[in-house]
Amino acid sequence: MTASDDPQPTGPELPRYVQLLWGREPAGRRGPKPRVSIEQIGNAAAELADREGFDAVSMKAVADALGMTAMSLYRYVDSKDDLVDLMLNVGYGPPDPSWTRGVGWRVGLDRWAREIAARLVARPWMIAAHAASGWAPLGPNVLLWEECGLAAFEGVDLPETAKLSSMLLLDGFVRSHVAQSIQLGQAGADFDHTKPHEDRYHVFIGQLVTPERFPLLTTAAAAAADDHTDFYGGELDFGIGVILDGLAAKIERTASL
């Protein structure tokens, strides 16, 4: 399909960086040939975040990394929001369709959720990037992840909106759990799973709460502080399992109607 064969847009014009990322750049565009590709810009921003963290990413810093001026960078992206979208497209990368095809909905969604978690843990700046973005990501890799997740539902009798809602629920839990795990020092690119890690959060709670004022929290915090299982892995298993158990019940109810 050529650019002229693409369906005519029926809504607002796509942002320039999205057109470039999807190869929708009008064939007859005038002006000098671009010095860098939109993919190179995304890679430079992601590599900068890998080295120095999300807060280090700015239009000027990315332009410097590419050997160009910030004004030149504005020929490709209009704002940092655009830059964040490009970074997330790099951070996620393309999924493997075999994760979810022909393996059953539960196995497929479990793998899908864990692969998302692995990418977020490997590049924690993606959590901050999601929070800072002004809109949902539009990169092809990100949308391929949605396509991959939907493939897990092949042959499952659920409304399409319920399938999307299920993926949204899983994705939201995974992002929240990874963010909390990093915040508590229980996960991250430099976290060493081979060494024991004290649950300082619940230890501190135990020093602050009293059975008289917080009887339930006192008991729960003491149990958590004595539990030396892997927080990140254990809570990931628990959360994904509960969500998929609920989805199984919903699928069963839908099938019985």
Q: Could you name the CATH homologous superfamily of the largest domain?
A: Tetracycline Repressor, domain 2
Approximate strand percentage: under 5%
How much is the radius of gyration in Å? 22 Å
CATH architecture descriptor text of the largest domain: Orthogonal Bundle
* Separate helix tally: 12
- What is the helix/strand order? HHHHHHHHHHHH
Distance between the termini: 43 Å
Name of the CATH class of the largest domain: Mainly Alpha
- The helix/strand class is mainly alpha
Topology, number of strands: 0
Number of domains: 2
The general outline is flat
Mean pLDDT: 86
CATH topology of the largest domain: Tetracycline Repressor, domain 2
Helix content: 55-70%
For the largest beta-sheet, the strand count, sense and barrel status come to: none
Q: Which residues form runs of ≥5 with pLDDT under 50?
A: none
What does the model show?
The chain is mainly alpha-helical and 257 residues long. It folds into two domains: 78 residues, Arc Repressor Mutant, subunit A (Orthogonal Bundle); 128 residues, Tetracycline Repressor, domain 2, CATH 1.10.357. It contains twelve helices and no strands. The longest helix is centred in the last third of the chain and has 26 residues. The protein is flat and about 70 Å long. The two termini are 43 Å apart.
Keywords:
2 domains, about 260 residues, Arc Repressor Mutant, subunit A, about 0% strand, mainly alpha
SSE topology sketch:
Elements: H1 16-21, H2 38-52, H3 59-65, H4 70-73, H5 80-92, H6 105-122, H7 125-132, H8 140-151, H9 160-183, H10 200-208, H11 215-226, H12 231-256
